[in-house]
Amino acid sequence: MNSALTKSILSPAGGSRRMVVGLTLSLGLLLAGMPAAAPGSLYERLAYADLVVHVRTLDGTLRLAECQVKEVLKGSYEGDKLFVAFRSDNTQRENFRDRIVFMDEQESILLLTPVLDSLGHPRAPNRFRLVGKLAGKIDLPQEGAQATIDAVRRLSAIQNLTDIHQIWAAYRLLILETNPILVETGFSQILKFRLGNPEMVPTLLDFLDSRDDRFRRDALQVQTQIFRKSRRDQAPLGNEDHVVARLLTVAMEDPAPAVRVAAVQALNAYGRPDVLAALQQVARDDPSQFVRYEATVSVYRLRREEGSPQAPAP
Questions:
Q1: 86-114 as b/e: b if 16+ CB within 10 A
Q2: pTM for the complete prediction?
Q3: Does the pLDDT value for residue 66 go beyond 90?
Q4: Which distant-in-sequence residues (6+ apart) come within 8 Å of 242 by Cβ?
Q5: CA geometry: angle 47, 112, 91, nearest 5 deg
Q6: 268: Cβ contacts below 8 Å, ≥ 6 apart
Q7: Residue 20 in 3-state DSSP?
Q8: What is the 3-state secondary structure (H, E, C) of 21-90?
């Protein structure tokens, strides 16, 4: 609030100081009764939820959706039913966002936080809001539902760990799973906390054959972390020739431009002049402008590091 507006509000013409204080307190109490906005990924949303449950909707036409609790996946809840306040989230949503709908007999995973009163106390032990609004309700398909339930159960168990080293080890193990939800979470957390290490390299190379562009790209980004740490610590991996050969193949042949960019960045992190010729070819011949640019920048950096006077401008 700017100073001119503040003076106007506090002046006799704009109302008394008591009114302003009252409005401020009311706004604060209103916000205290609303759940915090949750980040985008499932793992992050789970961290914001006080209670995560697998439910079946009994009646979604009421003011509060009535749900049967099939399993508690995170937190503690003793009842066999709970009620979800969702209609205010629909009225306050942006026009481009979908409405929250509770269809009778639909099974879902709900990420919940208690509904609070104006003093910040739970209104009732069985009344909740969705964390992240629409993102706090994951409807389960008739086929494949168990994979989502298992993933939420596993991720919630990791969040219950208290030892940071156990948590990091659990993140690394996630990329060994076959469940794509767990693999995606594992890569995101490994990249976020820079947990890549040389022991992971064989697994990362296996991911370069994945049909999922995201996993090929993520594996290359973790390999970039490992190369940078190896150079910083002056601790060679011992199998660089094999790794670099695979990365060169990906940089020149992978069908996805984003994956080829990630491969070029990994080769740049490798930082040895023996990849210059291949990067020059990529910079000249790749059909994607983004890949050519990244390869050109990498050539420039590598030549600058080796002190070549012929370093081109990026």
A1: beebeeeeeeeeeebebeeeebbbbbbbb
A2: 0.80
A3: yes
A4: none
A5: 120
A6: 279, 297, 298, 301, 302
A7: helix
A8: HHHHHHHHHHHHCCCCCCCCCHHHHHHHCCEEEEEEEEECCCCEEEEEEEEEEECCCCCCEEEEECHHHH
Round to whole Å and give the CA distance between 105 and 119.
35
The sign one gets for the Cα dihedral 296, 204, 41, 194 is: negative
Helix 164-174 crosses helix 145-159 at what angle (to 10 degrees)? Answer: 160
Q: Is 44 exposed, middle or buried (0-12, 13-18, 19+ CB in 10 A)?
A: middle
* pLDDT beyond 50 at 314: no
The helix (run of H) or strand (run of E) holding residue 176 is none
List domains and CATH numbers for the chain. Answer: 42-141 (2.40.50.120), 149-305 (1.25.10.10)
Give the DSSP per-residue string, 209-239: T-S-HHHHHHHHHHHHHHHHHHHHHT---S-
Structure tokens at 117: 């009163």
Q: Could you tell me how many helices (H) and strands (E) the chain has, helices first?
A: 13, 6
